[in-house]
Amino acid sequence: ATLYKVGVQFSEALKWAKGVVSALDEQHSPAVLAALGIDVIFGAGEFCRLPHLGFVVNGQTLRSRNYLIATGSRPIVPDINGLQSTGYITPDTIWQQTNIALAKSLMILGGDPVAIELAQTFTRLGSSVTLVVNTPQILPKEDPEANLLIQAQLEAEGVKILTGQQVTQVKWIQDKKWIQVGDRAIEGDEILVAVGQQPHVEGLNLKGVGVEVERLGIRINPKLQTTNSRIYACGDVLGGYRFAHLANYEAKIAVKNMLFFPLFKVDYRHIPWAIFSDPELARVGLTEEQARRRYGDEVLVLRRYFKSVDKAQIRGETTGFCKILVLKSGEILGAHLVGAQASELIHAIALAIQQRLKVREIANLTSIFPSLSEINTQTAAEWSQHRQNQNPSRQNFLEGFFNLRRSWLP
Asked: By the 8 A CB rule, do 134 and 164 touch?
C-alpha cells in the first residue's frame, strides 16, 4: 500500500482543488452569462398554474412557452439510527469546509462512483479507509469483471471493503464514531456518506403543475419532456450517475426541442462515461448481461489485456483490459475499458457506435505505435478471429489455397 502514497498534504490538495473549481466556475459566472445576453436572477421560486403557467421568483412571474428544470441533486442521507446526531460529511461538504483535517480513519458508506474515487484518494493521502456497500459488488451497474479488478486494486492499496453489508447503527463513543455493520462494530474518526444522489426539486411546486417525480428523479419521455409537456428536465434531477457531460448532452437535446419543435430524442447508447479510479473504468453502450438478455447467443465478447500493448509495458501500467461486445454481424453493442487513460480511449468506440460503424472499422484503424490506442484495434481485430473459427470451410479453403501457392514457388 505504501507504493501508492502521495507526497502531498491534504490541506494542499484541498486548496488546489478549490482553486481549480473556482477557475472553472469563473467561465460561467453571472458576468460572463450576462455578456452572452442571459438574464441571471438569484432567488428561490416555484411554478404556478393560474392564471397561466409561469414561474414566480422574487415576487415576479416569469412566463415562457417552455421551461427547463436543471436544479441538480443533493446527496442521499440514509435513515440510520444515530447518524444525524453523530455527524457525517458528504462528497459535497468535503470541499466546502475551510480547515478540515485529514481523518486518520475514514468510514465510507455507499458504492456510488464518487465513493470509490474518494476511497482510493483518501487512502493515498494517508487515511485508513473502510468502504461499506449494501450491494454484492462495489459498482452494481458495471461489468462484474471490471468490478473485481477495481476492487482488487483498492484492496491492494489498503482499502477495507465490506460488500453486501448494511449499516444499522451509528454511535459516538469516547471521541470516536462507531458504525454497526452486521455483527461487527467499526470505529473511525469520520463518516463519509456517498450512497447516491436525489433530485433537488423541493419547493418548486412541481405537483401543482402536473410534473411527476419518482423515487430517483423526475419522470421524463425520450424528448426530455416531463409529464407537463411544456416543462423539460435534464441533468441530475433525472437520477442515475452524476456526470456533467451527460447533463450537457441532455441540455442540448432539451434546448433544441424547446426552441424549435419537440422532435429530438436522447440516445444514451453512444454516450460514454468513466469512473476516475486508478486504473480508470470507462464504459459505453450495453453491459454483457444486458446484451445477452437482449440478443442471446448472437453476442460475441472480444477481449484483450493491456499487458499485450507495448506502450502499457513501457509505462509500467499493464493492469486492465478492453472488452467489446458485438453481434456476429460486427455491430457494436457496448464496450468496457479498465486501465490507463480508459476515459480517453473509450471515445473512439463511442464514435463508432454513434456512426453505426462495424467493429472491423476499428480493427482497420492504424494506431500510432507505441500508443495505448492499440488496445482498441487489437480487441476489435479479435472479431475476424472469431469469424475464422466459426467458419471451418473458409479455413480449409484458405489453407488449401496457400498450400497451392507455396507449391508454385519458382
From this structure: yes
Residues 6 or more apart whose Cβ sits within 8 Å of residue 246: 235, 240, 271, 273
Give the other-Cβ count within 10 Å of 58's Cβ. Answer: 10
DSSP-assigned letters across all residues of 341-358: THHHHHHHHHHHHHTT-B
Q: What is the average per-residue pLDDT within 398-409?
A: 72
Residue 276 contacts by C-beta under 8 Å, 6 or more apart in sequence?
Answer: 117, 343
Residue where the block lists cell 437535446: 253
Helix (H, G, I), strand (E, B) or coil at 284: strand
pLDDT tens for 157-202 read: 999 999 999 999 999 998 899 999 988 999 999 999 999 889 999 9
The side-by-side arrangement of strands in the sheet containing 45-48 is: 45-48, 54-57, 60-62
Task: List the grid coordinates of 408.
Answer: 508454385
Q: Which three cell numbers stand for residue 410?
A: 519458382
- Tell me how far the alpha carbon of residue 377 is from its chain's centroid: 24
**Contact residues for 130 (Cβ-Cβ < 8 A; gap 6+):** 105, 106, 107, 108, 159, 160, 161, 162, 186, 188
